[in-house]
UniProtKB/TrEMBL annotation:
Cellular component GO terms, alphabetical: cytoplasm
Species whose genome carries this gene: Microbacterium ginsengiterrae
Main location, first listed in the record: cytoplasm
CDD domains in the record: LbH_SAT (cd03354)
Keywords per UniProt: Acyltransferase, Amino-acid biosynthesis, Cysteine biosynthesis, Cytoplasm, Repeat, Transferase
Name the UniProt record assigns to this protein: Serine acetyltransferase
NCBIfam families tied to this protein: cysE, EPS_EpsC
Length: 188
């Protein structure tokens, strides 16, 4: 558990140029607090302690401004930068090394259907501020979703999604998004 917490703090420091030290990140970053609370909620959810899981997730939402349903599955080194207004639905799946900015929604289509209703983000996806990814779709590995985009269709690996509705294009040679996931000098 301690190793995972350290890994989370390191991931946040790599992605946020404003992070001055690990203690500051651990104590003052609501995105990390929401993720840590989600791990507790998800463990309770998996043990069919649904009321306790939801109560913990609602407390975390009140304290952080970030809503993560206890049923959502989240990978390692996930980071929510700024975080306010982020919503992650029950059947959402998030891979490793994913970065979300504030105001992102991983939402479900409105219907009475059960089963998979929320998106899957593969490893290395970056989602810009205010983007909405809706429905049981998959966003492929190392894809960048631009700020304010509305994504309702599957996206291939190594693509860039922009617009309303979002249009996908393959990354070009001059596109350099490598810093988005692993360095502190990113912008989106």
């Amino acid at each position: 558990m301690i190793a995972r917490i350290r890994e989370d703090i390191t991931a946040a420091r790599r992605r946020d140029p404003a992070a001055r030290n690990g203690l500051e990140v651990a104590l003052l970053y609501p995105g990390l607090h929401a993720i840590w609370a989600h791990r507790v909620s998800h463990a309770l959810w998996r043990r069919n302690l649904r009321f306790l899981a939801r109560a913990n997730s609602q407390l975390a939402r009140t304290l952080t401004g970030i809503e993560i349903h206890p049923g959502a599955r989240i990978g390692r080194r996930f980071f929510i930068d700024h975080g306010s207004g982020v919503v992650i639905g029950e059947t959402a799946e998030i891979g490793d090394d994913v970065l979300l900015y504030h105001g992102v929604t991983l939402g479900g289509r409105t219907s009475d259907a059960t089963g998979k209703r929320h998106p899957t983000l593969a490893d290395g996806v970056v989602v810009g501020a205010g983007a909405k990814i809706i429905g049981p779709i998959t966003v492929g590995p190392d894809t960048v979703v631009g700020a304010g985009a509305v994504v309702t269709k599957d996206a291939p690996a190594n693509s860039v999604l922009t617009g309303v509705p979002a249009h996908s294009r393959t990354r070009r040679e001059h596109d350099d998004f490598s810093d988005l996931r692993l360095a502190s000098d990113y912008s989106i």
